[in-house]
Specification:
145 residues, alpha+beta, Thiol Ester Dehydrase, Chain A, six-stranded antiparallel sheet, 2 helices, globular
């Protein structure tokens, strides 16, 4: 099982900004991560206790980063990634913090290489669809020392 500590080692995020709890499944093309941090009143993305559905894009981006680390797309870990594009976004809820069930974040890689990756993503809470979209991530160059 890939737990929060293992996930944190794959992300450039620290502390509460590492939003994912565990990886439920993954293979060469996709990953499913679970998160409960949307219910945490101290969530770093929340404003006045309100966590909008658009914050789901960050959950998806973290799932993509974990997938890149697990599959070897990102060979120097953790590398910073920049959202170059987010398209076809659909939000089915206004907020995340009022969802009782854990978030299930599925990311499906459409294309990927060492510097650029594209994923479709779906976010659910229980049986309810929360958000979906497509994101392209530009990976920062490996720093030389």
């Amino acid at each position: 099982m890939i737990d929060h500590a293992a996930i944190a080692s794959l992300l450039p995020h620290a502390g509460t900004m590492c939003l994912l709890d565990r990886v439920a499944s993954w293979d060469a093309r996709s990953i499913v991560c679970l998160a409960s941090s949307h219910r945490n009143p101290g969530n770093p993305l929340a404003v006045d206790g309100w966590l909008g559905s658009a914050c789901g894009v960050e959950y998806a981006a973290q799932a993509m980063a974990v997938h890149g680390g697990l599959t070897g797309i990102v060979t120097e870990r953790p590398r910073i990634g920049y959202l170059a594009s987010v398209r076809a976004l659909k939000f089915y809820r206004q907020r995340l913090d009022d969802l009782e069930a854990d978030l299930s974040i599925e990311a499906i890689r459409l294309a990927g290489q060492q510097t650029l990756c594209a994923y479709d993503f779906l976010i659910r809470s229980g049986d309810a669809m929360v958000a979906q979209g497509r994101a392209t991530v530009l990976l920062a160059p490996v720093e030389t020392r």
